Automatic annotation (TrEMBL):
It comes from Streptomyces lichenis. This is Universal stress protein. Belongs to the universal stress protein A family. Pfam families: Usp (PF00582). Gene3D superfamilies: HUPs. Residues 6-137, 152-290 form the UspA domain.
Length: 292
């Protein structure tokens, strides 16, 4: 991962300003600069009242000035730059995601029951970004956020190599906050075909599916425990859907970190069911890290 900058996408909404706050805090924690980006592309339309390019351009720069002032008031010592990018939102944000350490976007809230709306721009960016993208929502008036230093919840899937980038992001986030990591691995009963193909032999040797999954999680965590010996680690293995298991562990978490496999659908790339569930229903910011 590139360590040069943390970037926040800004559109003037309350959600994007929450993203600015989160990104500024994160930049200070990691000792890197903050970059604020607003995508604005002049596209004349057949409506005279909105044809004034200068007015629209001044408004775009005004949005960034407000965001930069907000970040400066929050962290006067933080190095912060801002840029209006002459491009469509998705294209601009994808380019930013590939050049920095983390891209931060705002998410619109719908309340505790309905979850949170991940806008079409955000969904496209998260699904195709080369680097980690963090989705942040604006806090509701009755929102009870965990105190600084709360646990970093991370979902571990696949082999140690497959989940390396996801675990690295989680451990670095925890170390920067003086927090612990709660690593979750969900599993399901193997399909009937596995019995006929002898696919359960490895599980039998491990003493059953639960010990097998616990061993797989421990092996994936081992190098990161060694690299971050001062980060407390809790391990959780549970039978069930990965998205549901992660969400059941998310109350009290400061950040949820999930991976994203690159999968191409008929109409483009997909986020994946686990990331989709967590992005829409987790009560805290969510980081989606693409597998290398």
């Amino acid at each position: 991962m590139v360590d040069t900058v943390i970037t926040a996408g800004v559109d003037g909404s309350g959600e994007s300003m929450a993203a600015v706050d989160w990104a500024a805090d994160e930049a200070v924690r990691h000792g890197v600069p903050l970059r604020l980006v607003h995508a604005w592309l002049w596209q004349p339309v057949d409506v005279p009242i909105v044809q004034d390019r200068d007015v629209q351009e001044r408004a775009a720069h005004g949005i960034l000035r407000d965001a930069q002032t907000r970040a400066a008031q929050r962290h006067p010592e933080l190095e912060c730059t801002a840029a209006v990018v002459d491009d469509t939102a998705v294209s601009a944000l994808l380019r930013e995601a590939g050049r920095g350490r983390t891209l931060v976007l705002g998410t619109r809230g719908h309340g505790r029951l309905l979850g949170f709306l991940l806008g079409s721009y955000g969904q496209q960016v998260i699904a195709a970004a080369e680097g980690p993208v963090v989705s942040v929502r604006a806090a509701a008036p009755d929102d009870a956020r965990p105190a600084e230093g709360g646990e970093i919840l991370v979902g571990q899937q696949g082999s140690p190599r497959e989940s390396a980038d996801v675990l690295e992001f989680a451990f670095r986030a925890a170390a920067a906050r003086g927090a612990g990591v709660r690593a979750v691995r969900a599993w399901n009963l193997p399909p009937v075909q596995a019995y006929a193909l002898g696919g359960l032999e490895v599980m039998d040797e491990a003493g059953g599916p639960v010990p097998y999954e616990e061993k797989a999680l421990a092996e994936a965590l081992a190098p990161w425990r060694d690299r971050y010996p001062h980060v407390p680690v809790a391990e959780h293995v549970e039978l069930g859907s990965a998205g549901q298991v992660l969400l059941s562990q998310s109350p009290g978490a400061r950040l949820v970190v999930v991976g994203r496999r690159v999968r191409h659908a008929p109409v483009g790339v997909r986020i994946g069911s686990v990331a989709h569930a967590v992005l829409h229903h987790a009560p805290c910011p969510v980081a989606v890290v693409p597998h290398s």
